[in-house]
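Q: We require from you a single protein entry containing the residue sequence and its fold in token form, and nothing else.
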Amino acid sequence: MSRRHAGAGAPVTRGMRVLLVVAAVLVFLAGFQLTVFATRTAEWFSWTIDVPMTAVFLGAAYWSSAVLEVAGARSRTWSRARLTVWPVLVFTVLTLVVTLVHLDKFHLGAEHPASARGVAWGWLAIYAGVPLAMVVGLALQARATGAPTDADDVRRLPAALRGLLVGLAVLLLVAGVALLLAPGWAAEAWAWPLTPLTARAVGAWLVGLGLGWAAGQAALVDDAASVRPVGLTGAAFVVLEAVALLRYGDALDWSGWQAAAYVAGLVWIALVSAWILALRAGGAGARGSSR
């Protein structure tokens, strides 16, 4: 017997697809600014990031997030897309709060270059508007109906993979919340120096789009096909962060435990992502009903 959720077999609404595509474009552009102009954020980003490794980390994070959002936009049914939508909402709300708390650090004043002011005002408008648009989109999606499809059939995850997803979710959520609530203290455990603003920016990504929320939701969904976007996003993140380390890895103190813990976290994400993608490719997993 297949496990179903209310509205899971409904098609993804046009509005939700548009929102996800727009979100993907926006995070891609943010990632481009941070990756290409990692040493020129005073001119080409919303706030100045003094440590280039932080800029390329966030840039790679945003680019990998675009993979999650595109996967959601391309999903045939809500059962496949919902896992990509909630992380977007959580991330944008948290980032709006971080922005408002540190508004004085943003390039909003006339003393900053016009390019930086344009990006900063655009940032503020985006993070104020996207959460509202997502809430409206979710309300409209809740009204969508459709006949159940084969997308509702569940191919359950192996117990060990679910355990790894739960552990990863706990790790990333705890780290993200710590960076958000106590950035000065939590930054001591990070692999390279962070300011309170960059610590909270990283924290918002870890909780929302940075696989924290998504990994936990994936473990709850417990369906190999539905969690595939998490695997794609995780794989993209690991590859991009490896490139970031090659570019600015000298920012890390490789003699300390923090650098080792950071690399171990990347390996964990890589293992989980590869396993998820292998399940889909190999048709692994067993069909089952909800527990």
The chain is about 70% helix and 0% strand. The first strand starts at residue 155 and ends at 156. Residues 14-287 form one domain.
